[in-house]
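Late entry, evening session. Most of the bench is empty. Finally got around to the prediction I had been postponing all week. Sequence below, unchanged from the version circulated by S.P.
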Amino acid sequence: MPSNDPTTTIEFPRRRRGQLSPPDEYAALRKQPGLVRSALPNGSTLWLVTRHEDARTVLTDPRISASPLNPGFPTIGRNGTVPPPDQIPGWFVAYDPPEHTRFRKALIPEFTVRRVGDMRPAIQRVVDSRIDAMLAGGTTADLVSEFALPVPSLVICELLGVPRTDRELFESRTRILVTFTSTDDEREAATKDLLLYISKLIAMKQRFPGRDLISRLLKAGVLTPKEISGVALLLLIAGHETTANNIALGVVMLLLNRQWIHTPGVVEEVLRYLSVADRVALRVALEDVEIGGQLIRAGEGIVPLGAAANHDDATFERADEFDPSRSARHHVAFGYGVHQCLGQNLVRVEMEAVFETLFRRIPTLELDQAVEDLPFKHDGVLFGLHALPIRW
């Protein structure tokens, strides 16, 4: 039997100003039986999943879909919409198996631990060069624009074979796509710009193949050029925006908890504690299904809240404490199941290189603005910082 009255809804929880931890309401929601229905700005509703075990169940149940083509699929804002396959073929996170499996099979070899390990020297060169540039500029900087964003952007450029000089184009268009306040026209124009750019890039690599991921996908012939353009767009956006947010917020966490700098478990704990992709795993039930004692009807939207699941005391002892000494590898910051983030090995290597090198080379690093005054991304699909003033 359903545990909660399906006619009762709450406002969608949001982080408070200056708050690095998840919304305060998450703890109370986890204690409630069943699930909780939330009202969205567009008038629709969905089920919030806040417990770790329930989140993993949702993310692995074949009766629950990631495809926006299914009736009732939720959106949490103008730019929280998952593009349908006919709009961007190759945006494979919006596919269910077996179509999703076809894309994963083609891409998994590109992101193995071994393949990413081979990229470590190149990643380290990028990190060092950006620190060199910051140090050459004086004793203050904006860590976001001068370091946290350029590092993953340059890495993904090298992986995909995108000229470094074109980095500003996809960074600026991505900002539009991941910001809730962007208009529909701005979003459409940004998407067209990116797809046009990638289409031209693919056409060039068809004539002059290189040693990059796009060239390898073209040579394999498993995906069509149009599908590869959607894959490349997804990797460009996800490959730099999420990592940049983890880097910037992770630096704040470590400056507030200096005793943990250079601790081996820092990367996993930053991923768990911050959970920047808290609200991106949108789902819809294909048939009636019970999750955590709550009956969810076919056609009802669901969102497993990553930050809520990753702060579940039933799974992580003292979950609201930042403690890199814990074993946090079973967090769901990268999702779970068949849709688990394809680039997680790359993200880990980048963050390891960033935190180790930054604090080793600039041991006097400090925040140049109070945490409560930092410009957090409360207007975005992903949690992060628009800027991070630092000094040394």
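Two things to note before I forget:
Residues 225-256 form the longest helix (32 residues).
The domain at 10-391 is CATH 1.10.630.10 (Cytochrome p450).
Will write this up properly tomorrow.
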